[in-house]
Each structure stands twice: as C-alpha cells, then as structure tokens.
C-alpha cells in the first residue's frame, strides 16, 4: 500500500504528476478540484496522501492534500454505487468537514447538490454513513449548523491552503463563531479572527 507521495511537482491539476526518487520515477495521481487547487507550483516540493484503487482494467492512484480528505474518500467508497470517481467528484464540490456535516445531520438536499449524487444516492449515503462519520470530522458544537456555510467554507479553504490542518482550521473558526458572531458574512474577517486566535492564550 502506498501511504503518501513526497516529491516534486511535474504537472499540476486534477491529473497531477509527481516525481519521486530523485526524479527517477514519476507517479500519476488523480485529485479532486479542491485538492488540485491546493497544489504548489511546478518544480516545488509536494506531499500528498494517497489511495491505490486496484481493478481488473487497471490501477489508479488518488492523491489528497490532507488526511481528512482521504479519510472521507475512503468512507464514501464503502457505499454501494459510490465509486472512486464519484467520491472524488463529491470532494470537488465540498470539503470533508461539510460532507461530514451533511451525512451526520441527514441533509440529503445538500448532498444532491454534489456532483454525481441523485436523490437515491443521497438517501443511501445518509442511511449507511450517518452514524459512521468520525466525530473529529464534524463540528462538535451542537449549534455549528447555524454557521454561515458559504463564508465558513471559503474561510476554511483559505486557511487550509495557507498550510493549516483542516481540523485545526475548523477549531479556530468554531471559536470565532462562538466569540465573534459579528464576523457574519465577511470571509476576510473570519480568516483574520481565526489567525489572530492562534496566538491567544490557551490556544
């Protein structure tokens, strides 16, 4: 099993190529749209967590910028009818934290807005995964569902792109939500407040 790839970017995008072993080997990886958006420039070093899919028609290596995204991918493909490409499409439409929230709260309407998911697929996902979503992948505050999804989602993406782990970024944003509700729909305010909280006592 290939756990991760650590090398140099040769080709960016959803069909990325990473050179390893000093450039002697190049690996093809498929990423979600969101994952591809977090890749560094060509020639720079990159580390991607991976999942190897082995089928009769070939082997496919999927890449993920975070362990959370890979964990959600692996959870999704355990559901009948949800193959690797559909799971990757879902992760292109929403980050792992948001998908986890949809599953845990049974938000089938939100799931149907993700690429490749119809009403039957959404219902199956909720039934099979609603209680299997890892607790650390979901907002722990019961009132978290009232957070503005758009601005929060955008702020989370920016913080992760800046190098923060998804779980750390989520925790910081939750604290902002609890202590500074005035940030409302201002994405930049969410980000500034979250980064400011990193240096606060007890953080």
Which properties best describe this structure?
3 domains, five-stranded antiparallel β-sheet, Helicase, Ruva Protein, domain 3, 19% strand, OB fold (Dihydrolipoamide Acetyltransferase, E2P), single chain, alpha+beta, DNA polymerase, domain 1, 203 residues, 9 helices
Structure notes:
With 203 residues, the chain is of the alpha+beta class. The chain is built from nine helices and five strands; from the N terminus they run βββαββαααααααα. The chain has a five-stranded antiparallel β-sheet, with helices on one face. A hairpin with a 3-residue loop joins strand 1 (4-11) and strand 2.
* H/E element order: EEEHEEHHHHHHHH
User: Mean of the pLDDT scores?
Assistant: 83
For the record, what is the CATH homologous superfamily label of the largest domain? 5' to 3' exonuclease, C-terminal subdomain
- As a percent range, the share of helical residues equals 40-55%
- CATH class wording of the largest domain: Mainly Alpha
Uncertain residue segments: 140-148
User: What spatial form do the alpha-carbon principal axes imply?
Assistant: flat
DSSP strand count:
5
Strand content: 15-25%
- Radius of gyration (Å): 18 Å
> At CATH's second level, what is the architecture of the largest domain?
Orthogonal Bundle
Structural class: alpha+beta
């Amino acid at each position: 099993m290939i756990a991760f790839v650590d090398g140099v970017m040769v080709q960016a995008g959803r069909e990325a190529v990473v050179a390893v072993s000093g450039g002697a080997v190049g690996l093809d990886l498929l990423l979600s749209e969101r994952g591809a958006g977090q890749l560094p420039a060509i020639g720079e070093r990159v580390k991607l967590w991976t999942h190897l899919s082995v089928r009769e028609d070939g082997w496919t290596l999927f890449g993920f910028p975070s362990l959370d995204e890979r964990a959600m991918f692996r959870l999704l493909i355990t559901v009948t009818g949800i193959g690797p490409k559909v799971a990757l499409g879902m992760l292109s439409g929403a980050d792992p934290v948001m998908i986890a929230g949809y599953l845990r709260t049974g938000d089938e309407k939100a799931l149907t807005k993700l690429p490749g998911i119809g009403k039957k697929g959404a219902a199956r996902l909720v039934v099979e995964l609603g209680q299997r979503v890892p607790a650390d992948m979901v907002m722990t505050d019961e009132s978290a569902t009232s957070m503005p999804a758009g601005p929060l989602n955008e702020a989370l993406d920016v913080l992760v792109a800046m190098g923060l782990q998804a779980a750390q970024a989520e925790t910081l944003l939750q604290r902002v939500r609890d202590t500074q509700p005035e940030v409302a729909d201002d994405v930049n305010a969410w980000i500034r407040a979250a980064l400011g909280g990193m240096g606060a006592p007890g953080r």
